[in-house]
Design brief:
With 223 residues, this protein is mostly helical. It is built from 8 helices and no strands. The protein has 2 domains: 95 residues, no CATH class; 64 residues.
Length: 223
């Protein structure tokens, strides 16, 4: 009985304190300063939200997702121009230098963006965490590709010795012959072999670039 009385006394002491805390918090929420309300960020008309994991307009979220998917495709196409054109690649050899941190950063970012790319853009509408991760990955991919390409354009072949630049120029001319469908298969194959000798010790063509050249020549031979 004594224990029960003590328990009731404790509850009587705690209830007023709890009520006081409740009303204090409630008053801060309802009656606090109104001159600095907390506002949700508003995207400018042409701005793309960096994240779709907000309470923003679903139309803006969809716009951000579709623009990101399109930007991903555009950046892939820009890189593909180098992969498919070995002669162009030799104008900007830094793009083949996987030892350069900018180039490595671009390739890592591309891999991450490709892994996170959705099968359908609609799939990201109901998965904000995946959408945010994908938007961030593509932003990093585009930024790192721009950085690598800008440096490659700035340098061109200037960081090679005079002799190396001459070898690159000869290799470029030979590769153009290897890409020329009007040349015979034998001429194309021989030109690619000679180009390899010129590039030996200078740079290595990307696997996809090399494979494209070889497939072109093999198709000519097979035809």
């Amino acid at each position: 009985m004594v224990l029960l009385i003590r328990l009731i006394e404790v509850l009587l002491l705690l209830v007023p304190v709890g009520l006081a805390v409740f009303y204090a918090v409630r008053s801060l929420r309802l009656g606090g300063p109104r001159d600095e309300p907390e506002l949700e960020p508003v995207a400018e008309p042409d701005a793309e939200p960096r994240s779709v994991g907000t309470r923003g307009d679903p139309a803006l979220q969809w716009r951000a997702i579709t623009r990101t998917v399109e930007e991903h495709a555009r950046t892939d196409a820009r890189w593909l121009e180098y992969e498919l054109d070995a002669a162009k690649l030799l104008d900007f050899p830094l793009m083949t230098d996987v030892g350069d941190e900018r180039v490595m950063r671009f390739h890592r970012a591309k891999l991450r963006a490709d892994v996170l790319r959705p099968d359908r853009a609609e799939d990201l509408l109901d998965d904000r965490a995946s959408a945010d991760a994908y938007l961030s990955a593509v932003e990093d991919y585009v930024t790192s590709f721009n950085a690598a390409e800008s440096e490659a354009i700035r340098l061109r072949r200037s960081d090679f010795s005079r002799e190396a630049q001459q070898r690159l120029a000869r290799a470029q001319s030979l590769i153009r012959v290897a890409q020329d469908e009007s040349a015979t298969a034998q001429e194309r194959a021989q030109s690619l072999e000679l180009a390899d000798r010129e590039l030996d010790g200078l740079l290595v063509l990307p696997t996809s670039t090399r494979s494209g050249l070889e497939r072109g020549i093999a198709g000519e031979i097979g035809g």
